[in-house]
Structure formats: structure tokens, C-alpha cells
Amino acid sequence: MPTSLDRLRVGSAPDSWGVWFPDDSQQVPWERFLDEVADAGYDWIELGPYGYLPTDPVRLRDEVDRRGLRVSAGTVFTSLHRGPAVWEETWAQVSRVATLTQAMGARHLVVIPSFWRDDRTAEMIEPSELTSAQWEQLTSGTERLAREVRDRFGLEIVVHPHADTHIDTEPHVRRFLDGTDSGLVNLCLDTGHYAYCGGDSVKLIETYGERIGYLHLKQVDPAVLARVSAEGTPFGPAVQQGVMCEPPLGVPEMEPVLNAAQRLGVDLFAIVEQDMYPCPPDQPLPIARRTRRFLRGCGA
């Protein structure tokens, strides 16, 4: 019998339905996403890109409630390494998402650092490495964001290491964690992105367990990863080539990650994401059903 992973609250997200943007003709309508994520057996969802789901909290609450769903988090994108000049723009976006997140009863904001490639064209728009001054802006700006979000909305931020951002590889993640206050800033560990960038999720959980505040469950196809790494393929095109795959077909092996998270002895959201933008509209639901069945088999 599998170990009971009773500290993990499993959900899914619009990302697993090929949703990357608030409005895109290649994406499934939001009603279909909500219908199918409930059909697949999930209880929790994230908001996804702001504006994809209804932004009126009364309407959204009605839509999720009647499908037996609850919201675990909202998501924001930031460019805090650029310093105070971007604060007002950042806060305008964050406050919109935080207002809806709070209204839906969620407690987390997933914070994704800005890409150093354009997320549609994959064109390189800034250097992939930060200067020391930019690292200071990133860490101090993230702490400021955490304080403001906590004080104004009662939410906790969890920063998401992500491919093609400045918080990606193990050295970058360690530098970020070591440069931020553990009382303010924790991580959303995305197992797929961390593996994509060469990191070991179990090692990170065991080393920085007190900083793991949230999980995204994801796997990468090692054969596709080897090819796109050798060819220097940007993340967006790599996704189109199938670099992210459903468990248990990829890496990291999911059971050790889940067990390591359970051993932390704290309640954690474990939100399934499988980057598939763009994808045929009939592809996500069968994958979601299989993935939920697989996770139940692991005890989650």
C-alpha cells in the first residue's frame, strides 16, 4: 500500500489545459476548463493568467462552487530585478490578482520572475545572468512585495523558479533563498521546471524544507530535454516539442518527491501542471484523469 500523503492537497491549473494567456483562440474556453478539471477528480484549482477565468468574484465563486472546486492561489509575473522603477506597474498587476485571490478564499500568490526571452516569440530580450546590483534589487524587491501582499491582503507569496527566468538553476535558486528573509519569502517548487534546469527536487526539499511553501507537480521527458538542451531551444518551443510529459513517463520520479514533501510535516498544495501550450482541445482531459489516478496510486 502507498504511504498516505495526507499533508498534500492536490489540484490542477489552467496550464494543464494548454492555457498560458488571458485570451487566445488556441485555448479552451474557461467553462470547459472548469467542467473538465472537476470531471478529472480535482478539488483545487489556480486562477491561471488573470482574465482567463471571470474576474468578478461573485460570478467566479458561483462557477467554482457549483462544480465542487476551490481556489488555491493566484499567479503574478514580476520584473523586480529592474528596481524601483517597475514597482508601480508591478503593484497594479499584483493588487488586481491579490484582490481576486483573497475574495476566493485562497492564501497564496505564486510569483513568477519575468522571462529573459519573449514568451511568445522566444526572442532574447535581456541577459540571462543578473549583475550583483540586479540580484540585490530582486531580493529586496521580493521582500517588499511579500510584506505588502501580507499586510494588505493577508496572502503569502511563493516564488516559482522557472525556465528562461533568472531564478532557474540550483545555484540561482540557492542564491535567491540565501538572499531573502525566510519569514517573508518562500518557494513554489515546480518539479518539472527545476528538473528542466538541472535541479534535484528531493535534495531541495530536504535542504531547504522550511522554505518550501507550495508545489507544482510536473515531469519532463528526458529524451526531449536532452535534445532541446543540446540545441539551445527556448522554453516555449521546447514545450511545443513535448518536453513536459505526464507522470510517470518522465523525471523527476514523482513518489520520492511526494514522500519528501510529506515528511516536512506541513500542509502543502500540490498543483498539477503540464505545460502544453498550444494543444488540441480534446487532449487535456484524458491526461488529467490519468494523472489524478496515478497520484491517488501514490497516496495523494
What does this entry look like structurally?
The longest helix has 22 residues, at 132-153. Helix 3 packs parallel to helix 4 and helix 7 (201-207) packs parallel to helix 10. The chain is α/β, with parallel strands linked by helices and 300 residues long. The chain is globular, with a radius of gyration of 18 Å. The strands form 2 sheets. Strands 1-2-3-4-5-6-7-10 form an 8-stranded parallel barrel. The mean pLDDT is 96. The protein has a single domain, classed as TIM Barrel (Alpha-Beta Barrel), CATH 3.20.20. It starts with 7 loop residues before the first strand and ends with a helix. The protein is built from 11 helices and 10 strands. The chain has helices spanning 30-39, 57-65, 87-103, 132-153, 170-178, 191-196, 201-207, 222-231, 235-240, 254-263, 284-297, and strands spanning 8-12, 44-46, 70-78, 108-113, 156-159, 186-190, 212-217, 219-220, 244-245, 268-272.
